[in-house]
Design goal:
The protein contains 5 helices and 6 strands. The protein is an alpha/beta fold. The chain has one domain. It has a 4-stranded mixed beta sheet.
Length: 176
């Protein structure tokens, strides 16, 4: 059984709320970002209320609202600017959050094979998570940048603004 949460993403015109599923089953689908029925797009909602109405209508599931302490947006724009050489490296916590979001995004889109993978990538993630970028050596920065660059490109291809029905909704109302 999955529990659905709103997750605020900051990324210029793609900013808004996505639906994130926390799934506890050992053999279940895993944590993921909710894709539309087409499997290629991620609905981006203007607010938590519209995200909750869509979730209830599409899946018959309630939206769990996070406490203010646990609710913080992910600034993908900051990460992308850094990847493009236009900004400073984000903090370790923001990089971990970005990497986690990208893992859940590709799982939701069914595109996990497109991300860099393997033991070295896993080791880089664990090093980032446990000790931060200061502990990086060798190719760790390059592995992290490749993963984040690939994932943010997928996000930018898949993110679609959602509007209420009757307002020309570009996204199917049925989720996977």
């Amino acid at each position: 059984m999955c529990t659905w949460y709103p997750y605020e993403i900051e990324d210029g015109e793609r900013s808004g709320i996505v639906l994130w599923a926390g799934c506890a089953e050992p053999r279940g689908p895993g944590d993921r970002v909710c894709a539309a029925a087409d499997g290629r797009t991620i609905p981006v909602f203007p607010d938590t209320g519209s995200a909750g109405r869509w979730l209830e209508s599409a899946l018959g599931a309630p939206l769990e609202v996070l406490s203010e302490e646990d609710d913080h947006p992910l600034d993908l724009e900051e990460i992308t600017e850094w990847l493009d050489g236009r900004g400073d490296e984000p903090g370790d916590g923001d990089l971990v959050d970005g990497w986690n979001f990208i893992d859940d995004l590709v799982r939701g889109l069914g595109r996990t094979a497109e991300l860099p993978a393997g033991e070295a990538v896993d080791d880089t993630y664990l090093l980032l998570f446990d000790e931060g970028t200061e502990a990086f050596g060798g190719d760790d920065h390059d592995r992290m940048r490749r993963t984040l660059r690939t994932g943010t490109a997928m996000w930018r291809e898949a993110a679609v603004p959602w509007t209420e029905p009757g307002g020309g909704a570009p996204v199917s109302r049925t989720a996977r």
